[in-house]
Amino acid sequence: MAASLFDGADRAGHSGGVSGALVIGEAVLDVLVAPDDDGDGGPAEQRPGGSAVNAAVALARLGRPVQLATALGPDRAGGLIRAHLAAAGVVLIGDPDVLDSTGRAEAVVDATGAASYSFDIGWSLPADVDAVDVPRVVHVTSLGPLVDPGGASTFDLVEALRPHTAVSYDINLRPGITGMGADVRARVEAMAALSDVVKASDEDLVALWPDRLPGESATHLLGLGPAAVVVTHGGEGASWHACHGADWSTGGVHALPADVVHPIGAGDTFAAALIDHLWPLLAAGPDATRDALGDLDPPGWTAALTWAARAAAVTVARPGADPPTRDELG
């Protein structure tokens, strides 16, 4: 895939400008089974989801042009996700019907509020995804680089686009699907090394390196090459860790008040809103992007994380992954 993407005249990277965002990752039908008044399992609530779908919809609702490279099946669940994406203005790349059935994530909540989870998720990329125009930013999320055969194709695509675009990576681990072995850590590190901005939750970092504090793990990731690592800390807010040459910057913001209905999609919304705020700094090619991000001062990072936290606060106050529009954020 990587060998064919820029055959000929180094095409889209220098032949007509740079487009919007390309999001790469899984699409999932979220199925929630909650207890009814008698404490038994009530009717299942089905919602389009998956980290990449949530992030793509969040970016589109903020007014950014978005394309999505994902995998679906030719079934009702795939149709629901297609309609959800179309309503938000997200354009699917190629023919995503590459799975026998669309991925599902089922959560069964008992009378105490505890949930048990089961997953049936495959991951691949459309065969013609290498025809994509060069985007302004590539956003890779969650299972994208971690589950084959799509994982290997994701690395090929990002490596081919890397010289011409900015790269954002939201680690967003799913240990129940991938496990937490050395291969997962190696793939996370390899994608981080290709990225300009890495976003992770503190839970992601503890799962990856349980013998380190999240700040130490963020510093480790920063040393692999990105210009910045942003860490979310749930109700405690978020922090940034940035490096440009010998200049280091770190700091954080508080979480914004929110009446939490469900946290699903909050991290995906945060990542999308962070990209949205940093959009003017995401230049063509890694050197220009990293220089621009490296020049961002602490007030600039504070503003970026505050914007992302505002968007996430709206999402958690709604059922399902329902990110805000730009008008809703004011």
Automatic annotation (TrEMBL):
GO terms for molecular function: kinase activity. This is Carbohydrate kinase. PANTHER family: CARBOHYDRATE KINASE PFKB DOMAIN-CONTAINING PROTEIN, HEXOKINASE FAMILY MEMBER. Keywords: Kinase, Transferase. It comes from Nocardioides caeni. It comes from the Bacteria. Belongs to the carbohydrate kinase PfkB family. The lineage of its organism: Bacteria, Bacillati, Actinomycetota, Actinomycetes, Propionibacteriales. The keyword Kinase applies. Residues 22-324 form the Carbohydrate kinase PfkB domain. Pfam families: PfkB (PF00294). InterPro entries: PfkB_Carbo_kinase, PfkB_dom, Ribokinase-like.
